[in-house]
Design goal:
The complex is a heterodimer of chains A (277) and B (255). Chain A is α/β, with parallel strands linked by helices and 277 residues long. Chain A contains nine helices and ten strands. In chain A, strands 6-7-8-3-9-10 form a six-stranded mixed β-sheet, sandwiched between helices. In chain A, helix 8 crosses helix 9. Chain A is globular. Chain B has 255 residues and is mostly helical. Chain B has a single domain, classed as Orthogonal Bundle (MetI-like fold), CATH 1.10.3720. In chain B, helix 3 packs antiparallel against helix 8, helix 8 packs antiparallel against helix 10 and helix 9 packs antiparallel against helix 10. The chains are: A alpha/beta (277), B mainly alpha (255). The interface between A and B is medium-sized, with 29 and 21 residues.
Chain lengths: 277, 255
């Protein structure tokens, strides 16, 4: 069901080779890196999660993976090509839905199509077709009937769903989520886990989910990377072998909680190790 | 009358109360009409000189609106430049703040040397006094974009221009309308001040000539007309604001 049996396992979809990033030349000269020695290979269609304490460089990692920041050292290849600038094959969503209050929900979802090629040049001519696509996507995440409402008329969870739709409307090969459910209550969050799971199962894009919620990462991801504190580097890589499709009941099984517990141990251990030095 | 109605009518009730108190005080203490005219005196003078007042008021109005229109164009353009570039912001902002601190009335004699007595100095004074709030508000609206949203769009290949047009400008519209409401009242101040020394027409000129002829009722009538014109323009911009950028005031209007 999931993308585990991807055929082109030989060339990874995302390939970080010894990537270091300092935010400017001065910091680089002082050997002060935001992330260091990142090595990461992700299969086509793989769902990975990056967990770690606040300020450990998770968001920096996102900027590297989307080409918004260039690495100071090392190379990044995505989809077989070296990253040289912003990657249009990626869609992003953040903890704040940041929808535009003067646009209706469906118009917010359409925003990327007004910007990214090849949709941009045909936007006026094929607008009705795109609107239809946006409405379908919104219905898929349970926002049927809210398409023409303004974002401020929606609840936080609904806004976040719309934000994810906006990230997916141009059918990106890679979806990057930076603590997307962090501001939601526990029940809404679990709802959205399932929505994300279903979208991913259906469309088979790559997902890089940055989160500090271990249960979330174990429930959703194929592989969980634990990032240690400043400078950010991966301290643990953990394959989640839980069978798919997964449903919420799984989160109450011993197998699940054991993995969460183990990952928690890695974060704790690493923190004491660094704080004692 | 419920509290909602009371709120709607409260400005009129307050106005009537003030006028009554004013009239009462003038009558009770027998204040000379040459020192401090009573409302009835102002009203009768207003009626007596209504055509003269109307001519001067019309002049002040179109001069102000011309200066104000200029202020909108220049303010929006400058605000756009300053708000969309960090370098321009750093370079221009301190100078502009310094410029804004100068009393605009002090420019009038200079403008008279350049443009002579008449329309020129008044339009330019109205412009100089009112473009600053417009510029600052546009710049602020543009400069305070959410970084996440910018990332979402930049990753799609959005140029700075796309972000400005799609997000920055609509976002700064509420700031723009807020600044119009401040700027229009300032523009009337600018025109009137300039007309007092550098024109032969307009409410400012009327105030000076009425004052020197000890026609205090007429002078007060002139002041009222300027105030009324500013209030009307302010209300027009408020209505425009509510109709175009209602999304920015949802909290206030939903309940």
């Amino acid at each position: 069901m999931a993308a585990i049996d991807s055929s082109n396992a030989s060339t990874p979809f995302v390939d970080f080779k010894n990537v270091w990033l300092a935010y400017n030349a001065e910091l680089a000269a002082a050997n002060h890196f935001a992330v260091e020695a990142i090595d990461l290979q992700v299969r086509q269609g793989e769902f990975i999660a990056i967990v770690g304490p606040s300020g450990c460089g998770k968001s920096t990692f996102m900027k590297l993976a989307t080409g918004l920041k260039m690495p100071t050292r090392g190379t990044i290849h995505i989809d077989g090509a070296p990253v040289t600038g912003p990657l249009k094959i990626s869609g992003m969503a953040f903890q704040a839905p940041s929808l535009l209050p003067w646009r209706t929900t469906v118009d917010n979802v359409l925003l990327p199509l007004e910007i990214v090629e090849p949709y941009r040049s045909s936007f006026k001519a094929r607008r009705t077709e795109y609107v239809e696509r946006a409405r379908k996507l919104l219905q898929k995440v349970g926002l049927a009937g809210y398409e023409d409402k303004f974002p401020w008329q929606l609840s936080g969870g609904m806004q976040q769903r719309a934000s994810i739709c906006r990230a997916l409307i141009h059918e990106p090969k890679m979806l990057l989520l930076d603590e997307p459910f962090g501001a939601l209550d526990a029940f809404t969050r679990e709802d959205l886990w399932c929505i994300l799971r279903d979208l991913w199962t259906e469309q088979q894009f790559n997902v890089i989910l940055v989160t500090h919620d271990l249960r979330e990462s174990v429930f959703l991801a194929d592989t969980v990377y634990v990032m240690g504190n400043s400078p950010g580097r991966f301290v643990v890589k953990k394959h989640i072998d839980l069978p798919r499709p997964r449903d919420l009941e799984l989160t109450y099984t011993p197998a699940f909680t054991d993995i969460v517990h183990e990952l928690r141990g890695h974060i704790g251990a690493h923190r004491t190790a660094t704080s004692s030095t | 009358m419920n509290s909602k109605q009371l709120q709607t009518w409260s400005p009129w009730i307050l106005l009537i109360t003030i006028v009554l108190l004013w009239q009462g005080a003038c009558t009770a203490f027998e204040v000379s009409e040459f020192i401090f005219p009573s409302p009835t005196r102002i009203a009768s003078q207003f009626w007596e000189f209504k055509t003269i007042i109307a001519t001067h008021a019309w002049r002040t109005f179109w001069v102000t609106m011309t200066g104000f229109g200029l202020a909108i164009v220049v303010g929006v353009l400058l605000g756009f430049v300053i708000g969309s570039s960090r370098l321009a912001y750093a370079a221009v902002y301190p100078l502009m703040t310094g410029f804004n601190a100068l009393p605009k009335a002090a420019f009038v004699p200079i403008l008279v040397v350049w443009f002579g007595i008449g329309v020129g100095p008044a339009i330019l004074t109205a412009f100089l006094i009112s473009f600053f709030p417009i510029m600052v508000n546009i710049a602020t609206g543009l400069a305070t974009l959410e970084p996440e949203l910018e990332d979402v769009l930049r990753v799609l290949g959005a140029k700075r221009w796309d972000v400005l047009i799609k997000v920055g400008l609509p976002r700064s519209l509420p700031y723009f309308y807020a600044s119009l409401k401040v700027a229009i009242t300032l523009a009337f101040v600018g025109t009137t001040v300039s007309e007092m020394t550098a024109a032969n027409e307009g409410i400012g000129y009327l105030l000076i000539s009425a004052g020197s002829a000890m026609q205090m009722g007429l002078a007060f009538a002139g002041l009222l007309v300027v105030g009324a014109m500013a209030m009307v323009m302010y209300e027009i911009f408020s209505v425009l604001e509510r109709h175009t950028t209602g999304w920015a005031h949802r909290g206030a209007h939903n309940n």
